[in-house]
Amino acid sequence: MTLPSLNLLAQSILSGIFIGALYGLIGLGLGLTWGLLRQINLAHFGLVFLGGYLSYQMTASWKLDPLLALVLVPPLFFAIGVGMQWVLSKFAITPFNSLLVSFGITVVIESGIQGIWTADYRKLESPYNAMKFTVGKLYLPVPELVTLALALAACFGVWAAMRYTDLGKAMRAMAEDGKIAAAFGVNAQTLALVLAGGCAALAGVAGVCLALTFSLTPSQIYAWVGVVFAAVMLGGLGSALGPLAAGVIIGVSEAITMAVASPSWAPIVSFSLLIAMLLLRPAKAGT
Amino acid sequence: MSLTRRRILSATSAAAGALFGLPALAQQAAGAPIRIGSTLALTGPLSATALTHKLVGEIYVEQLNKRGGLLGRPVQWIVKDDQSKPELARTLYEQLITSDKVDLLMGPYATGAILSAMGVAQRYNKVLVHHTFGIPSMAKYDMQFPAWSLGPDPQKTVSNSLFDLMETAKKPPKTIAIVTSKFPSVHFMSLGGREVAKQRGLKEVLFLEWEFGNRDFGPIAARVKDANPDMVWIGDIGLEGNQLLEAMKKIDYTPPIHFHLYPAPGPMTHSPEGANALSVTIFEEQPPFTNSGTAAEFVKTFNERATAAGLPDTHVEVQAAASYSAWQILEAGVRGANSLDDKKIGEWLRKNKVDTIQGRLRFDGPGNYGDDLMKIKQVQGGTWKVIWPTSFASPGASLQVR
């Protein structure tokens, strides 16, 4: 092992921040549904990729600016999320069963994606791909900066909404004690639909960011599950800022590992951090 | 344009119509069909390439039946989806033999699945012709036959061929960075390349490995840039090489010489970063490969059918050529042995040579491997051109260095 140059280390940390922001953005919706709705929504990953593919389609076929997808995709996904939540609540799905049902939905989404776009790799081509800012010897690619900006905006936006709006307070109350909240007039069913729709919209946003920075292939859905779950567990279920912070920590740790040691060690970073958290502060993990 | 079920059915119907439009030839094949079974990774991480193999198999079986089938009987291909999982491939090959009771086997795609299928074939004493098995030293079954002509020691022979080419450069590289996926067949070759590079006096300035399915190539790109090698050996499969080149571009770095082991060929030519990328091949759509009528006909048919099916890459290169060759080998074995008896087919193949679109193949070396027929190609002007050895080079093509 040789010590990396400062420039290499700094560039790697930047890379880690960027991908960590994506981990956090993907984890935001997952964490909220898990913490507030008590649903482990694996379909979230399928929705993220569906959002990515729709962004690709809009760019490749309809020649739209990929950032326009940020206007078109979230409302569509909000509706999808509401519909999914309505079905789940109709059948009174338990938290464990939500894991199974949502996994099935992911498989269906994967099959649908493959049926439409094939199993081959798809790459969203846009002028943004070649754009970057330089700070000294460090490079800040525009697609990654967009992802970071959106992750920050989404996480802080949700945080502010949960803290300062009546809707957000009602959601927190619902999660804390649904029956007491209902006694004070909180309509849990409606709130659940709104929350599920919002989380699905966030998945759509994450999908746009994914398409901006990565090649797409249906089977890659599962490559993100482990690391994002780790970010959510580390960051805290139902937390708006936790998954982002945890995602960045994981991303930077992975990047430093790749820069200093070997890229093949990177996959163990996220779960090592999670295990460390479970060992050192078990009460904090997932809360 | 995407590959859809409708397109596949449409293409298949058209092919069936063409087949039925040749009653004189079709009637030469009579009786119960000879059933050939295989799996392919029709879903999962390897499915993009497996679709090419599926199309090739369909083309070959159609052509074969037009020529009267095998032993006077039509041929039916039963292909199952192993989902890119070697363990599932094993189960499905068991099923093909014991439940579907196929007459013959054809190999699956990719090293892991082929290894699984090989174990099953050995258990039931079935011939297994396979395409793109990447670790010849693991092919120990005496009735397996490789269609990918990379020789018994490709990690040495292919690497030496590459470095022979490098010595023809105006400024031969003195330093090398080796970065590689740990996908089994890729990793095997990269370790071999690493060893050969040392033997030939290249100074290794960086060696990195990543897990197959790696998400972030940014830090890897940064390390390569920091090391500043004369040449980068990228042990990639699929789009890994493209992803690494894109990550390099984001930090304003382009390696002067970059070799890619098993890239997705289409995306590499389409990407601006892919300019001057080097890779290996056994067949390209150019003379002398297309000098034979069989090869020329196959290229034309594949181009048309791949376009109709919406495949993103419609060219015949390593994967399609190895796949077609596999069918040629199996057909030759059956015809030569004049039998469906696997033992007789195996004996015939080991004692005889088979003419394929790659060239003449033999199976009398270690692990039934023959000669290393790999060539070196480079992306020039947005297309792959063979540049080494010179006897196979595209007219006017030679090594280009940034």
From TrEMBL, chain B:
- Organism, by scientific name, is Ramlibacter agri
Keywords of this protein's UniProt record, alphabetized? Amino-acid transport, Signal, Transport
Entry-linked Pfam families: Peripla_BP_6
* Domain Leucine-binding protein, first and last residues per copy: 33-382
Give the signal peptide, or none. 1-26
Give the GO biological process terms. amino acid transport
Q: CDD domains from the entry?
A: PBP1_ABC_ligand_binding-like (cd06338)
User: Which SUPFAM superfamilies does its entry note?
Assistant: Periplasmic binding protein-like I
Keyword Ion transport among record annotations? no
Q: Does the keyword Isomerase apply?
A: no
* Family the entry assigns: Belongs to the leucine-binding protein family.
Q: Which domain of life is it from?
A: Bacteria
Stated name of the protein: ABC transporter substrate-binding protein
